[in-house]
Amino acid sequence: MSFKIFSLQLTGKIKSVETIENKRKQLADDYAEFLKTQNSEELKAFLALEEYVTSSEFALKKKEIEGHSFKGSEEEKQLKEFQALQKATRIKNYFKVEGSADLSRYQKEKESKKLTDFYALEEYVKDGDFEKDKEEIKSEVFKGSAEEKHLKELKKLEKSAGIKAWNELEGSEKLKQHKAFEDSDKLKQYNELKTAAVSDKEKNKAFKRLSKDSAIKNYFRFEKSKKLKLYHEISGSHNLVRYNELKEQVNTDDFKKRVAFLKDNKKFEKSDAYKKYAEYKKLASDSVVTFVLKYEKSKLYKNYLDVKESFDLKRYNELKELIESEDYKKQKAWLEDKKRWEKTEDAQKLRQYETEKKKPEFVKYFKYKDSTDFDFFKNWDVVFEDTFKAQKLDDAKWMTSSLTASKTLGQNYAMPGDLSLLTNGKNIQTGNKLSIQVKKENTEGMVWQMPAGFVQTDFEYTSGMISTGEHFQFEDGILEAKIHFNPVKQVASSFYLANGSNVPRANLVEMGAKNILGIYTLSGKGKIASEGLEIDNLKKGAYIFSLEKSGANFTWKINELEVLKLTNNDLNKPLELNASSLVVDKLSGSSANFDVEWVKCYRKK
After folding, report:
1. Segment 220-246, tens digit of pLDDT
2. What is residue 575's DSSP assignment?
3. 436-474 per-position pLDDT tens digit
4. How far apart are CA 122 and CA 114, in angstroms?
5. Backbone torsions φ then ψ of 77, nearest 5 degrees
6. 98-112 CB burial, b ≥16 within 10 A, e <16
7. How far apart are CA 102 and CA 284, in angstroms?
8. Separation CA 508–CA 525 (nearest Å)
9. How far apart are CA 329 and CA 145, in angstroms?
10. How far apart are CA 12 and CA 6, in angstroms?
11. What is the pLDDT at residue 198?
12. Residue 554 contacts residue 571 (beta carbons within 8 Å)
C-alpha cells in the first residue's frame, strides 16, 4: 500500500479534476483569445498607440504643454501692452473723438461754403489786403484828385471867350444860316458888284443899293463879329480838342460815379472791402464757423490729429485686431486653461490608451504576454485526440482488437486463464465518454494454447478493448486521459502503451486487482514483472492521468502532480494506445465498466 498517494491527497496537493479542467479550459479559451488578440488590427493599433504615449517624444510634448501658462507668455505681453495703450490718455482721448457726433459735424461743416468763404475773408482781412484796401479807399478824396483837376480845367476852358463863342455858335441856327448865305446868289452878286462898281456907275448904284440890304448887312455884321472870329480861332485848336475831351470825359457815368465816390464821405462803408469785412465779422460769429474754429483748436481734436497717424495708434489697432481675433482668444483660453493638456489630441490618445488598456482582451493579453502560462500551447501540438462524444467509436482512430490479434487470427482471442472474451466492439460504448463494459454472459471464443494453438473455448464473461495500433503510434510526447478511478478487484482495467504485444508496456493506469502506475516487463522466466507506484489509497473518482515519454524516460502525473519517474529502454520506440478490461476473478455482480472521458496525445513542436 502506498502512503505517498495518501499523503498527497491528505495535504491537498492532488487538485480536483474540476479545478484542473476549469483552469485548462479557461487557459485554452484565454490562449485562443490571446492569439485572436495578438493577430488583431486592434492590438496593432493599441501597440502603436502605446509606443507613442510611452515615448520620450510624447512625454516631452506633454511636459511642454503643461509647462505653458498665460503668465509670462508672449500673449500676456501683448495683452499688457494693449491694456497700457488702452489706458493711455492720448489714446482714450483719441477714441473720445473718433466716431463722435462732433467730429462728424466738424468734418461735414468744415467743407461747407460758409467755412470756405470765412477762410477766404479771414485771409483777406488778416493778411493786410483789407487794411491796404481800406487805406487806399479812404485816401481817395475829390480834393486834389485828377477828377477835380479835370473839372477845374473844363470850367476854365468853358469860361474862355473862344470856348464860349464855340459853344454859342457851334451847331446854332445862326451859324448854319450864315454859312448857307455864303453860297447864296445875293452874296455872289454883292461880291461881283463890289469889284465892278469901281468902274461902272450903274453897277456901283446897284452895289450901294444891295449894300443896304438887311441880309447883306447882317451877314457882314456877323462875319466881322468877335464871336465868329473867336469861333474860327478856337476851331481846330488844342483847347477845343482838350475841351471836348474833358467834356466828354466828365459826362461819362464812370467819371460821375468816380466824382461821386471821391466826394462821398461814406465811400468806405459802401466799398467791397467793407462788405467783405462785414461778411467776415458776420461769419466769424456764425454758429457753424464758431463751432468749427473752436473744435479744431480744442485739445481733444489736436490730440486726435497727433495720434491719428502715430505709431502708438497703429500699434494699438494691431494689438486690438490680434487680441480680438479668434486665434488669440483660443490661444489665451488654452494658456489659461488648467486642463489644457487634458483637451489635447495627445491627452485624448492617452485616455484612449488608458481605456483600451483596461479592455478585457488587452488585460488578458498583457497578463499572458510575458508569462509562461501558454508555454504548453506554444510548445506542444495535439497529435491525437478523442472525446468519445459520438455514439459510435471512431474507427478512423481505433481498432477493437489488439494489433497482435489483428495480424494473427484476425479477431480477439484469450490467453490461458482468462475468464472473459474480448469481443470485437460489442462491449464498447461511446457518447460523451468511452465505456468498456464487462458483462456476465456465456459466449464462445478462441484461446491460445500451446502447442495446440487456437482452441474454441466457453467463457462466462465478455469484455472489450480498443487500440490505435493500425492508426496512430505514440512517440515521444505526452499522453493524457481522464479516467474514472473505480477499481473492481475481479477486473483488471488498464490504459497503457505497448508495441504490438501486451508486454512490455507502460501503464498509464491500471486498476482492479492491482492499482498501479508503471511499467510491466517480462522476466527471464517469462513472468510479468511490474515496476511503479501503487495507488490503492487514491480516492474513487475521475482523474487526469498523464504519461510523458522522452526516449526511454517516463514520467507519470495525477491531476498534473508528478508522482513517478521510470526508465525503460525496451519501450524507447513508437507505441500504440490501448485500453482494455479483463476479468481475473468471478464478479459479485453481473457487470463492470471502465470509463474514459477523453484522451489526448501531445508532441513537442
Report:
1. 888 888 988 988 888 888 988 888 888
2. B
3. 999 999 999 999 888 878 899 999 999 999 999 989 999
4. 12
5. -60, -40
6. eeeeebeebeebbee
7. 19
8. 25
9. 86
10. 10
11. 65
12. yes
Indicate the range of 342-346, 478-482, 538-542 predicted with least confidence. Answer: 342-346
The cell for 66 is: 503643461
**C-alpha grid cell, residue 474:** 505514440
Give the residue carrying C-alpha cell 461769419: 283
What nine digits make up the cell of 595?
A: 470509463
Residue 197 — pLDDT band, cuts 50, 70, 90? low
Q: How many CA atoms lie within 13 A of 264 on its CB side?
A: 13
Beta pairing class for 420-422 and 453-463: parallel
Please give the Cα distance from 496 to 483 (Å, whole number): 12
- Give CA–CA dist 17/398, Å, rounded: 26
For residue 168, which amino acid is it?
A: E
Quote the cell numbers at residue 550. 522522452
pTM for the whole thing? 0.58
The crossing angle, in degrees rounded to 10, of helices 287-297 and 272-284 is: 70
**DSSP code of residue 546:** E
96 and 300 Cβ atoms separated by less than 8 Å: yes
For residues 93 and 303, the answer to whether their CB atoms sit within 8 Å is yes
Run of H or E including 135: helix 129-139
pLDDT at 258: 83
User: Residues of the chain with pLDDT > 70: what percent?
Assistant: 99
Pick from 526, 510, 520: which is nearest to 575 by CA?
A: 520
Under DSSP, the state recorded for 539 is P
> Cell numbers at residue 498, please?
505497448
When computed from its CA atoms, the radius of gyration of the chain, rounded to whole angstroms, is 78
CA 474, 477, 482, 485 torsion-angle sign:
positive
Higher pLDDT, 497 or 270: 497
What single-letter amino acid sits at 469? G
Q: Is 413 helix (H, G, I), strand (E, B) or coil?
A: coil
Cβ burial of 424 (10 Å; 0-12, 13-18, 19+) is middle
Say how far apart CA 519 and CA 504 lie, in whole Å.
7
| Residue 600, helix vs strand vs coil | strand
pLDDT for 485 beyond 70: yes
DSSP letters spanning 365-398: HHHHHTSSTTHHHHHEEEEEEE---SSS--TTT-
Please name the residues in contact with 597: beta carbons below 8 A apart, sequence gap of 6 or more.
Answer: 387, 388, 432, 433, 434, 482, 483, 484, 542
Residue reference for cell 499572458: 368
